[in-house]
Design goal:
Chain B: It holds the Pfam family Beta-prop_BBS7. The complex is a heterodimer. Chain A is α+β, with helices and mostly antiparallel strands. Chain A has four domains: about 5-320, YVTN repeat-like/Quinoprotein amine dehydrogenase (Methylamine Dehydrogenase, Chain H, 7 Propeller), CATH 2.130.10.10; about 365-450, Immunoglobulin-like, CATH 2.60.40; about 460-560, TATA-Binding Protein (2-Layer Sandwich), CATH 3.30.310; about 570-695, no CATH class. Chain A is built from seven helices and 42 strands. In chain A, the strands form ten sheets. Chain A has a six-stranded antiparallel beta sheet, covered by helices on one side. The longest helix of chain A has about 50 residues, at about 620-665. By secondary structure, chain B is an alpha+beta fold. Chain B contains ten helices and 46 strands. In chain B, the strands form eleven sheets. In chain B, strands 38, 39, 40, 41, 42, 43 and 44 form a seven-stranded antiparallel beta sheet that branches. Chain B has a five-stranded antiparallel beta sheet with strand order 33-34-31-36-37, with no helix packed on it. In chain B, strands 1-28-27-26 form a four-stranded antiparallel beta sheet, with no helix packed on it. In chain B, helix 4 (about 590-620) packs across helix 6 (about 640-650) and helix 4 packs antiparallel against helix 7. Chain B is globular. The chains are: A alpha+beta, B alpha+beta. At the A-B interface, helix 1, strand 32, strand 33 and strand 36 of A face strand 1, helix 1, strand 31, strand 33 and strand 34 of B. Strand 36 of chain A pairs antiparallel with strand 37 (about 465-470) of chain B, so a sheet runs across the interface.
């Protein structure tokens, strides 16, 4: 049962709710509203305290009763509270697409306000293992920035896409906190400084990460039309569930009072459920009247213990105390469950007597997998007397939905499924094939689970007669301290091959490996070459391919350090171009800002004149001023459009740069990768083109 | 007023049809015996002794049992069981002794059964037949699907038959002539005599409908029937009804297709509506609910049977007492049984390598129903399996739009379709654990008939799936209209006349491809002519079909309806190699009538969209907190916000649909009137401004007025 409930009577944005003790002892609730404002609700605030103080010039908060509003004026993209340094008070952080604001609510003053060109799409506060103090971690467009209390950047790294979820927690159980980040390209990774300890790919953009206990964390991922919640322990998935509703937020809270936390999930349907971290079993659920805006922990009743506070977008706030969902096991329920189990077993027994006989008609499904003609081709053939009615492939994040269905117009004996994966990486596919006799309406469903290797979207080809222009010297060159045989083993694992790749033991080509590949997505030719001196050449024009190969190979061979020389002229040109555009934007923006300032002063002026005309009852004058206002308003809107367009380009350029850095770092492993990132970053800051190119090319 | 009932599970049987559970009367206030029959053809008779369930009798498996009813001497409480499988009626005593086996000679299998003294009424498809002492007494061909039947005695010898018919009517029949008809708003699916304890009323009948309404019917001696009261709240279909005193007063007990069981107070006065006292959801559709004293001697309870064959009680006994009674003993026994089954499962798996079982029991029973929702012109497809569903694949060879349904938690995914393979829709619904039933809402386009193939896969290994074929008619969004006086509907009609060598039955069969819910047999009125009237759920235009051997005429204001009908009927005739002469009479002012019907809808929708836009803007600017500052119009908007938003979700894309209807109308109009074919893109370009203006005159001008530019691009073709 709820311990309290109240209503803020405001519409809140889903996902932007946080709580904190801004004076060190009283819990407050903060939430973003639709018009770019932030609301602070402080039920225990003593009215009139701040009225005696002189409103300072930088005070952004205006209190009215229990509520205060913080005008941001821009769409809020992240909201967080947390403690920095020795101060017992929580600091309030607001992120927008350009800035981060750290605010001291009690002092009604900024702690800092810093421009972040990558934007702030998620913020968290914590103590990272490799840094001495508590820090603010900010996830932006393809980057993660770590700031200290003075707003100085103490750490920076790249990510493949926009970073939308962060968590600071002890991933490997070594006593130090690692940084966990989730991105919009479905990735989750754990890192310690620049060393990536673990990464995985989920089925949708990751929107939330939350530490549960040591080595255990929960994640939430969302796409249009569905949402997933799951728990990982030491990098292994414990469970995940998918719903057609979207996940707004997740939080750990001990709702049943057993001493261990449960995972609470707030859904867009207005449902909140609590699941056991170990197996995902629902132990509690409640349906709210509106979509959930956030779940926070706050001691709102001043009971000494924090309650779970549910906030909906309609402004409804409801609190649940620890232990409010006690389990009361009923004998009747157990009895019913057992009855259901018995019925299921009886049915299985029965189903077997019917379906089994079909099995022994020799109906095994023949399956073949090949990389050919632009796709990974899964061939299915049914046994004698049977036809394939349909085949369903479930794989996350590859198709438009979660499944691809092949349904021939008439049941067929053979079926070919063309699978096209947008990205490299191992893919688990789950195929359900329905086979049955012709004209029957009861069929059997044969299931097949298969993991496709990392480079399944590349087919092995003989050495082409004519090499594409420039392939000779493009690519990555590095020294691999391993024999060619092991690299060949890795290739056999990572490709779908009709015949295994072998390395000649004797003869002129002994210890020499040369494999030519054609990408099924773009038909581009790549070559992996290893000579007897252990020099590995990846000849390719595609930096992503080179990066994927280097990273996968390093993991397979257990290499911790790997440096390389890279040559990708197109990529370099693109980076330089992006750098130019990046510079250009800054100038354009300054000019446009000046123009806007001019126009707005003009508007003020006109309004004063309009007011004058009104007082003088000069109808003609009023009409004229209004017309002028209309014109200027049009100008302002146009200026704004130009600005937002050029800002969009700026973000694009910056993203391109960050992706480039990411690619460059992926040609290397360990320290070499770290130093590449840092050098690139420096070069971009200084706008030094030569330095940037050199950082990409050499170590 | 509300009561608390606790669920106690008793036993599992095979898949059950509705109305296959009976409770025997008992003289003293002792626990009553009950009988359940299932699709395996097994009749079980159970009783409780010392708090434990015991099987008194179990028959051998046989054909699927569709219905069981109680019967016996009129003066005594009913103590005999009559069950129907195929066209046979079998009688058992309460001890399980077979005393009657009666082949009725009906062609179709019996779907509804009733026994009163020596009278036995059986309904098969659209035929009602009554037997007295197993000899033909009377029979009546309704021509509509029959859902249920009840016999009521009048005097000492005569009986009245009350029939629930598929044309939204209750018919009361005495003898074989002229039934009196009571029209309802929806199809009645179940009839149950009002009873107080063991005493069954002779003039009051409880009735449930396909759209979840419940009512009480009053009958007088002269076979006049009227409605006493109706609970008009729309809901899931009623599948079981009873009246029984659980606590303090007589209650109305309702079981529904969606698995809910509801208990209402039964008012003594006609003006008072029943009040809800209890609700429970079993998660799968309810086959029967009956009140009785079952598990213990002094506690009334509800005996429930579900589709998959779960038999459980909802008892008024306190749960603490339950635990004591059922105790650990029962649970241990169950655990032991489960262990045995698991072992057997292992054994069976090894053993069945060589054994060839020719007597394969029925598995994967799928129960499905397609319902047309008149209010938003969409279909609801209900699919229920007798076990957990793993996934459902829906394939369609015609464009179908799937709509989101609240309460359906399955993850839906649309797959890319290759139109060359005849796939216009491939959607998978991956179900959560323990889902037995799924509700899917879909929308079809008129004029694009096709077939849905639904593959339902069970979760139990080895995985199997069952395929369902569901036809989508050409005029899928038309619904039957029941007007006694069909001359009263007026309006300028376009007429389609077909003359050729077809029979009445052939034309009726062709129409079944074009229209949803066509009666079982042609409804012949005025000599040899059959008449059907349909109305469009989208815009409310009428379609009147009059047909007899050799000629058929169709009247509609809507030219699109006429064109679609012409296309499908000529196609069917060509398939049968029957030559047709086709005449189309176009009434010029019919277009005005159709536009008059559409325009108000268009205006209301436009207003709604505008209101929602205003509300959204107010939201963004956070101006809703002080409504007092705003004009009254906006204040009203804010007051009715939840209503408006609800309306909006209901009619989310109705505006586009209406636009498409007008465009289609124009295309068909040009085709019929000017013998020109234009693409709908051209039409929508031409009509765009007129539709936006929502002005009758402009629209009419666009339709009728000469437009040279359109003429130059169109290619004249023969009609």
């Amino acid at each position: 049962m709820a311990t309290f409930s109240l209503n803020l009577h405001r519409r809140l944005e889903a996902g932007f709710v946080a709580s904190g003790k801004f004076d060190g002892s009283h819990a407050c609730l903060t939430a973003a509203t639709s018009s770019g404002n932030v609301l602070v609700h402080s039920p225990h605030r003593e009215a009139g305290v701040s009225n005696h103080q002189e409103p300072s010039s930088e005070a952004r908060l205006t209190w009215s009763g229990e509520l205060a509003e913080l005008q941001i004026g821009k769409e809020v993209t992240a909201l967080h509270t947390g403690r920095l340094g020795e101060d017992g008070r929580d600091v309030f952080f607001v992120g927008t697409s350009t800035h981060i604001l750290a605010y001291q609510i009690e002092d009604n003053a900024d702690l800092f306000y810093k421009e972040l060109p990558d934007g702030a799409y998620c913020i968290t506060v914590g103590k990272l293992g490799w840094l001495p103090n508590h820090v603010v971690v900010v996830g932006g467009n393809c980057s993660i920035t770590v700031l200290d209390i003075q707003a100085d950047e103490v750490f920076w790294t790249v990510a493949r896409e926009k970073v939308t979820a962060l968590a600071v927690f002890d991933f490997d159980g070594d006593g130090d906190n690692e940084l966990l980040s989730g991105t919009t390209d479905f990735g989750i990774r754990a890192q310690k400084e620049d060393a990536i300890l673990w990464d995985t790919v989920e089925n949708a953009p990751v929107i939330a990460l939350h530490a549960l206990s040591e080595r255990e964390f929960a994640y939430a991922a969302c796409l249009e039309g569905n949402g997933t919640v799951g728990v990982y322990n030491s990098g292994n998935i414990l469970w995940r569930i998918k719903s057609k509703h979207k996940v707004i937020t997740i939080r750990a809270f001990d709702l049943n009072g057993d001493g261990a936390v449960e995972l609470l999930t707030g859904w867009s349907s207005g449902k909140v459920d609590a699941r056991l971290c170990s197996n995902g079993q629902v132990i509690f659920k409640v349906q709210m009247g509106a979509p959930i805006a956030g779940l926070v922990e706050a001691d709102y009743r001043r009971a000494g213990k924090p309650d779970l506070v549910i906030v909906t977008v309609a402004g409804e706030v409801r609190g649940y105390a620890v232990g409010s969902a006690m389990e009361t096991p009923e004998l009747g329920d157990e009895h019913r469950e057992l009855m259901a189990k018995k019925q299921a077993l009886q049915m299985e027994l029965r189903q077997r007597t019917v379906a089994e006989s079909n099995y022994y008609l020799g109906s095994k499904l023949a399956v073949s997998i090949a990389s050919a003609r632009g796709a990974v081709r899964l061939g299915l053939a049914s046994g004698p007397g049977l036809l394939i009615y349909y085949s369903m492939v479930f794989a996350e994040g590859i198709f438009e939905g979660e499944s691809l269905v092949i349904h021939p117009s008439k049941p067929q004996g053979e079926l070919e499924i063309a699978l096209r994966f947008p990205k490299n990486g191992p893919v688990d596919i789950h195929v359900k094939t329905c086979v049955g006799a012709s004209g029957s309406d009861l069929m059997m469903v044969l299931e097949l689970t298969h993991q496709l290797p990392q480079l399944c979207m590349y087919e092995s080809i003989p050495r082409p007669q004519q090499l594409p222009d420039g392939l000779e010297d493009r690519g990555v060159v590095m020294q691999v301290p391993e024999r060619a045989q092991r690299v060949a083993l890795w290739l056999n694992q990572s490709l779908i091959l009709s015949a295994e790749i072998e390395v000649a033991e004797v003869g002129p080509k002994a210890g020499h490996l040369e494999v030519w590949l054609r990408g099924l997505r773009d038909q581009r030719i790549h070559c992996i070459e290893l000579d007897a001196t252990s020099k590995l050449k990846i000849r390719t024009e595609d930096p992503v391919f080179a990066g994927d190969v280097v990273q996968a190979l390093a993991i397979y061979l257990g290499l911790r350090e790997l440096s390389s020389e890279a040559n990708f002229p197109e990529e370099e040109r693109r980076m330089l171009d992006a750098l130019q555009r990046f510079k250009g934007y800054k100038e354009v923006d300054a000019r446009l800002q000046a123009e806007t300032a001019g126009s707005s002063s003009h508007v003020k002026n006109l309004i004063v004149r309009l007011e004058d005309a009104r007082i003088l009852e000069d109808i003609e004058g009023m009409r004229m001023r209004l017309n002028q206002l209309k014109i200027i308003n049009g100008d302002l809107i146009r200026d704004h459009e130009i600005r937002s367009k050029s800002y969009g380009e700026f973000v694009g350029a910056l993203k391109e740069l960050n992706v480039g850095i990411q690619n460059a770092s992926r040609f290397r492993v360990g320290k070499a990768a770290t130093s590449t990132v840092q050098r690139c970053r420096e070069a971009i800051k200084e706008e030094n083109e030569d330095e940037l190119i050199s950082a990409i090319r050499h170590n | 007023m509300s009561i608390l009932l606790t669920r106690v599970d008793y036993v599992n049987v095979g898949v059950t049809s509705r109305g296959t559970t009976c409770v025997f009367a008992s003289e003293t206030k002792q626990s009553q015996k009950f009988a359940v029959a299932d699709h395996d053809g097994v009749l079980h008779i159970f009783c409780f002794k010392k708090g434990e369930l015991q099987v008194l009798f179990k028959s051998l498996p046989g054909p699927k049992i569709n219905r069981i009813v109680m019967g016996g001497m009129t003066s005594m409480p009913k103590d005999k069981i009559f069950l129907a499988h195929g066209n046979t009626v079998v009688g058992y005593t309460k001890k399980g002794k077979l005393f009657l086996k009666f082949e009725t000679g009906l062609i179709d299998s019996i779907t509804a059964l009733y026994v009163l003294g020596s009278d036995l009424a059986a309904c098969a498809r659209d035929l009602y037949h009554r037997y007295r002492e197993c000899k033909d007494a009377d029979s009546y061909l309704i021509g509509e699907k029959l859902y249920d039947v009840v016999l009521v005695p009048i005097g000492n010898t005569a009986v009245l038959a009350v029939l629930a018919c598929g044309d939204c009517a209750i018919r009361v029949l005495r003898g074989t002539k002229n039934p009196s008809i009571l029209r309802l708003a929806s199809i009645p699916t179940i009839l149950s005599l009002y009873r107080e304890g063991d005493k069954e009323s002779h003039d009051r009948i409880l009735m449930g409908t396909i759209d979840g309404k419940v009512g009480l019917l009053m009958l007088d001696n002269e076979k006049n029937i009227r409605i006493s009261w109706v609970l008009t709240k729309m809901n899931s279909e009623i599948t079981a009804l009873d009246s029984y005193e659980i606590q303090d007063s007589l209650d109305l007990i309702i079981g529904r297709q969606d698995g809910s069981i509801e208990v209402y107070t039964l008012p003594s006065d006609e003006d008072i509506l029943p009040l809800l006292r209890f609700r429970y959801n079993a998660g799968e559709s309810i086959s029967s609910v009956i009140g009785g004293i079952i598990s213990s001697d002094d506690c009334p309870e509800l005996l429930v049977t579900t589709y998959s064959g779960k038999v459980f009680g909802l008892t008024s006994k306190s749960s603490g007492f339950l635990e004591l009674n059922q105790g650990k003993l029962g649970i241990n026994k169950l655990k032991f049984e489960i262990q045995q089954l698991q072992e057997e499962l292992k054994k069976e798996y090894m053993g069945s390598l060589h054994s060839e079982d020719t007597l394969s029991p029925l598995i994967l029973s799928v129960n499905h129903r397609l319902i047309l929702n008149k209010e938003d012109a969409s279909y609801t497809l209900l699919v229920e399996l007798d076990r957990s569903i793993d996934n459902i694949l829906i394939q369609s060879d015609t464009p179908i739009e799937l709509l989101d349904v609240e309460g359906n938690n399955a993850v839906m995914s649309l797959s890319t379709c290759n139109h060359d393979d005849g796939n216009f829709l491939l959607a998978t619904y991956r179900c959560q654990d323990n889902t037995n039933r799924l509700e899917i809402k879909l929308r079809s386009i008129e004029g694009q008939p096709g077939t849905l193939q639904v593959y339902v896969t069970s979760q139990i290994q080895p995985k199997c799936c069952r395929k369902l074929l569901i036809p989508i008619c050409a005029l899928s969004l038309h619904t039957r209209l029941f007007i006694e006086d069909n001359e009263s509907i007026s309006g300028p009609f376009n007429e389609l006349r077909l003359i050729g060598g077809f029979t009445l039955a052939e034309m009726h069969a062709w129409l079944a491809f074009a229209l949803f819910d066509v009666p079982e047999r042609p409804l012949i009125e005025e000599g040899s002519e059959a008449i059907m009237i349909y109305t469009s759920t989208l815009i409310g235009t009428i379609l009147k079909c009059k047909y007899k051997k050799g000629t058929a005429s169709f009247f509609s204001e809507n030219i699109s309806t006429i064109i679609i009908l012409r296309d499908i009927l000529t196609k069917k005739a060509t398939q049968r190699k029957i030559k047709l002469e086709v005449f189309c009479d176009i009434a010029d002012d019919s277009i005005t009538k159709v536009l008059e019907l559409i325009l108000p809808k268009l205006t209301t929708l436009n207003e709604l969209v505008e209101k929602i836009n205003i509300l959204d803007t107010l939201d963004t600017w956070e101006m809703k907190n002080n409504p007092a500052d705003m004009c009254t119009e906006y204040q009203n908007l804010i007051k009715n916000e939840s209503d408006l938003r609800q309306q909006m979700t209901k009619s989310c894309d109705a505006l586009q649909r209406l636009h498409a209807i007008i465009t289609d109308l124009y295309v068909d109009w040009e085709r019929a009137k000017g013998s020109r074919r234009i693409s709908s893109k051209q039409a929508s370009e031409k009509l765009h401004s007129a539709i936006e203006s929502m002005d009758m005159a402009l629209l009419l001008q666009a339709f009728i007025g000469k437009d040279m530019s359109a003429a130059s691009v169109s290619v004249p073709v023969l009609l």
